[in-house]
Each structure stands twice: as structure tokens, then as C-alpha cells.
Amino acid sequence: MAAEFALRADHLTKTYRLYDRPFDRVKEVVLRKKLHREVRGLVDVSFAVKPGSTLGIVGSNGAGKSTLLKVLAGTTLQSSGEFEMHGRVASLLELGTGFYPGFTGRQNIVLNGIVNGYPRAEIEAKVDGIVEFSELGKFIDQPIRTYSSGMIMRLGFSVATAIDPDVLIIDEILAVGDLHFQKRCVDRIVSFKERGKTILFCSHSMFHVEEICERALWIKDGRIEMDGPSRDVVLAYSNYERGRRSTHSVIGRAEGYETMRAESLARQAGEAPPAPGASDGDESLPPPDAMPVILASRLRDPHTGVVVQRAQLLKDVVVEIDYELPQDLPGITVGCSIDRLDQIMICGIGSTLSGFKAPCQRGRWRVQITLQRLPLLAAEYSLRTYLTDERALHVYHSQSLGTRFEIAQHERRVGMIHVDHTFTSEPLPWPTRAERAAELKAMGLDAASGPPPGMA
């Protein structure tokens, strides 16, 4: 009989002992005197995960997410409580976990599999596939100590997902590595989900948690703050984080993202290829391993064709996106989002959800999104265009439309959006004495005292 759950945690608690000096550990035993202070990483955590479901885990840094995953993966012991898992378990936690620095990548594949309880013959049969997926090439026979963090992540993810586990535990796998390999990681995670595997997915990317996971846990100060549908948990956690966030930190993250993208764009020296069909015999082509990139974003008046700097209330405006694809792709999503300046999204528009098939063949393309009768009232917003994969899970590139997206209006209106409306009026008959008495009684008034001022 199949198990009712793939994972069940019951009142898990993890307490760490912190010492001011390493030798205090010995003194504590000899003197039988408490020389440590206790910090709880987990406090009475209980939940269950059904087979074939995907559970997201969110929370601030230091909240206890990684501690929970380490306990479940068996790399650390809980102080109290218990948990059960059914089926094969593979985990990808801290970079380099289970790898020996002096061994080569190939040797560490076998070592990692054996340490996790898999037969040597089974692991050796999968080595070629693991090496191919990791794309480490000749470096697979070099010692792990010579690897970069991104190379270690590639090898670790390839090993963890190659053994076909029933339960896959992932901690921030999308935080490192180049964008190309991140896309492959997302694809493999999605394929595991489609095959009915159980996944515990810890990430700071709320978009991925919401799209990949049906359910999510919000861990706060070692406790479960919220357990429910991923959309609800992500919204609650995002609102909490938004309240703690300063303007400086938001700007810093945006600049950090652009810096990361610049590393990919730097490889595309010279001009990119001209638009499909336009050739002068001297084309400058991007390298085949380059990432899809947005070349330019702009606003255009759909009636005059003129590029404009701001939009108008209840007027059509076109968001124009030029992009380049270095190679054919199975699909691509082109879109834009409008956010308030406090980072709350007002709307998000994507070609896939709208039923539009954006060009995904190698070349340069232009997509135009017409925003009809824009209902936003006069204010400053931010508008960002983006390119993602066909599932809208992996962002290839995004671009901000200047520093501000301005809306202008001529009439006096209040609020944030305009709602089309009309006014009508009609006369009502005076009530009879009995009806007035009933009305006053319903309002808790004494009919003898008469109606309140203004109702006479």
C-alpha cells in the first residue's frame, strides 16, 4: 500500500549551543558548569507532504529554512521531535556538501552516490549522463578544490537529480551559477514535478516558489508562521518583507541584477545580427552560447507612431520591445509589468498567458504590446520589460523603462485607477406613517421622538 505521505515532520526542534571560546566546551564538561548560551534554529515544526507534491519554503535569512532542510536531509540531528521519509531521497544543500576537495569530479560522483546509500554499480552507470548534464567537460577529471562555486553547483545538482529520487530537497539552487545552467535546472525541476516526484524547494525567488509549488511554508524565527497555498503564503511573506525593506536595498538589488546581466552581455562583442531578412553580407553574429537579450524598450503613440516619454490616462499606448535570440528556442515569453514605486505590482502582462506566440527563432525581433485605454491615474510608476522561457519560470533578461513611468491626466481624479462609470437618478415616493415608523424602529429610534435632523 502506498504511503499517505512522502514526508512527515512532528514537533521538530533544533537547539544550537554557542560558546564564546572553543575551549569552553571542555571546561563545561570538567567544571560541570554551563558556559554556553542556547539559540533555537527550529521550534516545534510540524507538517506533512503528500507524495508527488511540491512544497516551497520561504523566509528571511537566518529564519531556520536551511536548518530544517539539513535535518530532513540527515546532515544534522534534531534536538527533539521526529520525522519520516518514504522512498529515495536526494538533497542539494550547501555547495560542496558530500564532496572531497582532493578527489576529481568523476571520483566525487561515485563517492557522493555511495555516501547517500546507492549501489556503486548504479552510480557508475550514470556517470556519463551526469558529466554530460553538468557540462564540465575536461574539468571533470580535475580535483574539486580547483572548481569555482558555479562548477561545484553544476556537479552537485547533476548528481542529486541523476539518481532519480522519490524526494528531492533543494536549497537555493537558483542563487548561483550562470543563467544558462539555471534555465536547465528549472527545466529539470519542472520535469521532476511532472513525473510525480516530491520536491522541497527553498528559494528567495518568490516567482519560482509560486509557479513551481502548490503549497508553501513560511518559516519565521524557527517557527512555521504560515502554511497554505503558495500564492497566499508568498503574498503574506512578500508584504512582510516589503515592510522591512528600505529604498536603498531595493536599488542595490536592481543594480546587482544589471551587473550580473552585464557579464553575459560582455561576451556579445560587436553588432548583433540584423533583423530577419535584412542582410548586407557582413553580418556580425553573437556567440552561440549567448543569452537572449532585450535590445531596447520604448513607449510609442499607436496613432501617430511617435515615441513618447509618458502615457496618458484613458489613452492607448504601445510598449515596444526589441530583442535578440542567438539560437532557436522551443518558445519564449515576452512581457512587461507595471509596479508602484513601493514595489507592489499593479499588473503583469505576458505573451504566453495572453495567447500570443512570440517569435522564438534565431534573429532579432520586435514585439509591440498595446495597452488600451490605460486606466492608471496620474502618478509615477516603474515599468519593466522582460524575456523569459516558454513557461515564464526563467528570466533571460529584463529591462527598466527609464527611472520612472509617468502617467498624465487633464481631469481632476483621485485614487490610483480609473473605473468607467455613469451616474443616473430617479425620484422615490414619500413613505406612509407606518412605513416611516418601521424605518425608525429598524434604525433603533423612537417614532415618538421623530426622525433625526435631516430626515424630517
CATH class label of the largest domain = Alpha Beta
**Oligomer type:** single chain
> What does the main sheet amount to?
6 strands, mixed
Assign the CATH topology of the largest domain.
Rossmann fold
CATH H-level homologous superfamily name of the largest domain: P-loop containing nucleotide triphosphate hydrolases
For the record, the count of structural domains works out to 2
Distance between the termini: 76 Å
Strand content: 25-35%
Helix content estimate: 25-40%
The strand count comes to 19
General form? globular
Gyration radius, in Å = 29 Å
Low-confidence stretches: 246-265, 267-279
Walk me through this protein's architecture.
It is built from ten helices and 19 strands. It is an alpha/beta fold and 456 residues long. It has two domains: 238 residues, P-loop containing nucleotide triphosphate hydrolases (Rossmann fold, 3-Layer(aba) Sandwich); 116 residues, Distorted Sandwich (Coagulation Factor XIII, Chain A, domain 1), CATH 2.70.50.60. The strands form four sheets. Strands 5-6-7-3-8-9 form a six-stranded mixed beta sheet, sandwiched between helices. Strands 12, 14, 15, 17, 18 and 19 form a six-stranded mixed beta sheet that branches. A four-stranded antiparallel beta sheet has the order 11-10-13-16, with no helix packed on it. A hairpin with a 5-residue loop joins strand 17 and strand 18. Helix 3 packs across helix 4. The longest helix is centred in the middle third of the chain and has 19 residues. The N and C termini lie far apart (76 Å).
